[in-house]
Every structure is written in C-alpha cells, then in structure tokens.
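User: Before I run my own analysis I want an independent prediction to cross-check against. Here's the chain; please return only the structure tokens and, at the end, one sentence I can use as a sanity check.
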Amino acid sequence: MAPVLDLLHNVAVDLETAVQRRDGVDGLKAAVIASAEGFHSRLLAAVARVATACAERFLDRERVFVYSCSRTVNAAIIQAKNMGKNIEVVVTESRPWYEGLNTVKALDAEGIRVTLGIDAAIAVLISECTSVLVGAESISHTGDVLCKVGTYPLAVLARERGLPVRIAADCSKFDVTSPYLQWPNCGPGGPASDLVGTRQFQHATVVNALAEVVPSYLITEIVTERGVLSPADAARVVKSLPVSISLIKTRVPK
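Assistant: Structure tokens:
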C-alpha cells in the first residue's frame, strides 16, 4: 500500500538529513520519531479534508455507488449527510472478504440509506446511481489507480452510463516509487481457501485476485486534500513528495 511506502520514504529522507547534520544516536532516534508522528498527524488531517471536499462535490439527492470499504469514502458520505444533503448509497458485498458489509454497518449507524447487492449485480444496481466514489490502495504518477478487485468493471460501467468516477484519496496514496520501480507491485493473490474452503480439486486453478488497476482514462477526478485533481495531475503530486533515492536503490529497478 502506498501510505506505508510513503511513510518509509518520509522517515528515510528525514533520517538522511539528520545524518548529514552529523546528529548523534539520540538525534537520529528523535528524527525518526518526529518524522513518523508528523506523517501520522498530517494523514489524519488530510483524510478529514478529503472527506469534506468529496462531500461538497455531491449534489442533493445523490445516489452514489461505492465499492468495498474505505474510511475516507464513508467519512465523505457521513459529512454530506451532516451538511444536510439527501444522499443514498449503493454497495455490493466485495467478495471474498465482504468488505462491503463493513460499509453498510458504518453508514447504517449514521442513518444513511444503503442498498446492498451481490457483486455480480453491479450492472443492475448502477442503473439509478448518479456517481461513483471509491478509495484507492495506490496511485501511480501516470494517474492509474490500484483498487480492490471489481472496481475496474464498475468504472467501465460508469463510463458507459456517463457517470463521474471519483477517487477519494489523500496524498499518501500517491506512490512515490512508481516512476522508478515496477508498478503495481501488489504481490500474490489471496489463498484459494477464501473461495473454495477446504475443497480439493485435481484440475481446477483457483484465482483469488485481491486488487486490480483502474486506468486513468476511466477516472473523472481524484479528490485530495490539495484539491480536486485530474489523473494528469498525479505526476506533479508524486514529484512533490519526499523520496529517498537510497531506499529506491535497495529495490529491483524497472
């Protein structure tokens, strides 16, 4: 996930600066702690600003399709309700881990009307929606977005129906390593047991993909704490974030 990488690079850059100042051991420890705490504080503030910015983008009587479960997306919808906007949500289960049910639980507790369906019914459920809002695992410098598997077909359907596809993401979701290393590097999928339990098959291959890339051309805008951006702005954001070239060199290059 991009936030973890960005945290590492923030800490590495601040540590490298402390080394250049010839700080002692205590100074280096203090630099690491201050960097991590600062990153965490900025992240919390950023998520709140993103939620507000997303809420302001909603029309009254918005029927928004969300997918999986995103803390920022849920906060945006709750904020829209608190602004007095009449908002409804459509979400699917998001198998195999059913994160969509967590979205239902969070929004239902706030008195927000939610329609829940199975993942295979996306085309049916999106028919009366006015927009799509999803979170992101990672955003590359090209504006492509790594999301929970299933988001790509949702974005394709939204484009076909002329609906805006918004990404709710603070700037920690922009992957500073994407210009230098293979992207995305999301590792292997989940265990086969998520799908088939303890069943054994001789001639079946079980594919439990967890994430997929939504290409930039399917994305209308990325709502960040820096404002509402187009996917083309991603390169500028990535370039502005701290990156440790020393840390990059420890990874396998493209």
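Sanity check: The CA atoms of residues 181 and 254 lie 5 Å apart.
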